[in-house]
Design brief:
By secondary structure, this protein is of the alpha+beta class. It is built from nine helices and 20 strands. Strands 10, 13, 16, 17, 18, 19 and 20 form a seven-stranded mixed beta sheet that branches.
Length: 446
């Protein structure tokens, strides 16, 4: 009795594909897990395996056709009579088999032995693909693969899963698949990542970096050992995760703050009378809040699990504070709803609490953008690390008087360097350049 082979479910969000090559012909004997056709989906070529046994009677697709999940691909008849006879148990006790190589392992007893036509098809399937083609095989279950045998083909995972593994810094070949025939899902990648980080911590790598043995420094002179503080340890873990998961790019620019500095000194007494200090950081926080309204992609987060971009309708800005215990980033909330005088007072208060170790956990959560100002210390520029799950951070360095050609003559102008690091998965270089230039122009026209 004839049966039909339909295109099975090939993975998440894959409902169709283009037929690249049909690997069987009418009259061929097919067995389970034999590759029947190559299907191109989402920039990958997938070999579709058979789930039935029998003789190919009719092929319903050809090269170039678009096949959908559930569509009939082959009509398959019963196995030829002589094939069934060969599979019947023998009355004689079989002789012990010699040890054979993994590639010579016998097919399951329920499957008929390969005929020459099948062997020919499989040999054709093993020929090299066209240059540049990415081939994705349905590999056998992990228990059937020899431990010392490295996969010859790319792992069985959808392109989206492979991209996710690359984005979080994992080798997809090391991930154990829990799906059919070892197929790897995003959950498998996440589970492997959790296990990997747990192993690192158990090995004493709680700072987010791989531990390496160190020499005995005391052989060269006197040393002193101190335990790593909790603040330093948590900072190290966080920046390591940010650096390992976000493709960083830094855009540098300069802003002429000559007029801004004059205005800051002129209005500084008002802030002092209110209990604050009118600093460049206070002004920068307000300017950035305005920029985030114009460029909402900088006030966002990437949700890889749900394949969404989260645009935040609030404006909470974190400000890095240097303390004797390490770097802390308290968050100023609803910056867009406060004036510069309010912000100068709040920054003074929250900075003092940070240095006195009086910040609460709530005051350090919920930020949507971060500013790190090192101008009070020095430097010409730097590359700040994005504060995950945010997508950008602005670094500010020390201002310096430089000659600037204006109105046909050279003039001394106070220039401040700006360094914007951003997540290149969401933000393009042109947008980053426009964003930091917008901030610079706002500072130049107080």
């Amino acid at each position: 009795m004839a049966s039909q082979f339909k295109l099975p479910n090939l993975g998440e969000n894959i409902d169709s594909g283009d037929v690249v090559r049909v690997l069987v012909q009418v009259g061929d004997q097919i067995r389970k897990q034999q590759a029947l056709l190559e299907l191109e989906t989402d920039k990958a070529v997938i070999e579709v395996p058979s789930s039935i046994v029998g003789t190919v009677e009719e092929i319903h697709v050809k090269e170039g056709d678009k096949a959908e999940v559930g569509q009939v691909i082959l009509t398959v008849g019963e196995v030829a009579k002589q094939e069934k006879t060969r599979d019947q148990p023998q009355s004689k006790t079989p002789k012990p088999e010699k040890a054979r190589k993994p590639e010579e392992l016998k097919a399951p007893e329920s499957d008929p032995p390969q005929k020459p036509a099948v062997k020919k098809a499989k040999k054709a399937a093993r020929k090299p693909r066209a240059a540049g083609a990415e081939v994705l095989d349905f590999a056998p279950a992990p228990s059937e693969v020899p431990v010392d045998q490295k996969p010859a083909q790319p792992v069985p995972a959808a392109p989206s899963v492979r991209r996710f593994a690359r984005q979080i810094g994992l080798d997809i070949h090391e991930v154990q698949g829990s799906g059919t025939h070892g197929r790897i899902s995003i959950d498998d990648v996440k589970a492997h990542s959790r296990k990997h980080h747990q192993e690192l911590e158990e090995a004493g790598t709680s700072m987010g970096m791989e531990a390496v043995p160190l020499p005995d420094f005391s052989q060269w002179g006197e040393v002193q050992r101190q335990p790593i503080s909790n603040v330093r340890r948590m900072t190290a873990q966080h920046v390591s995760r940010s650096w390992g998961t976000i493709p960083h790019v830094t855009q540098n620019d300069k802003a002429d703050i000559t007029r801004l500095e004059e205005a800051r000194k002129r209005h500084g007494r008002k802030a002092e009378a209110a209990g604050g200090k009118l600093t460049v950081t206070a002004i920068m926080v307000k300017v950035v809040a305005s920029a985030l309204k114009v460029f909402p992609q900088f006030n966002a987060s990437i949700d890889l699990l749900n394949k969404e971009i989260i645009y935040k309708q609030y404006c909470h800005i974190g400000v890095a504070v240097d303390t004797d215990r390490g770097l802390l980033v308290p968050v100023i909330r609803d910056v867009d709803q406060k004036n510069i005088l309010d912000l100068s007072v709040e920054l003074s208060q929250i900075g003092a609490r940070a240095r006195e170790a009086k910040l609460t956990l709530e005051e350090m959560q919920g930020g949507s953008f971060t500013i790190s100002n090192l101008g009070g210390i020095g430097g010409t520029s730097f590359t700040p690390i994005v504060n995950v799950p945010e997508v950008a951070i602005l670094g500010v360095s020390r201002g310096k008087v430089e000659p600037l050609y204006q109105d046909g003559e050279w003039k001394p102008r106070l220039m401040v360097p700006l360094s914007l690091s951003y997540d290149h998965r969401l933000i393009d270089g042109a947008d980053a350049a426009r964003f930091v230039r917008w901030i610079a122009q706002a500072l130049e026209e107080p």
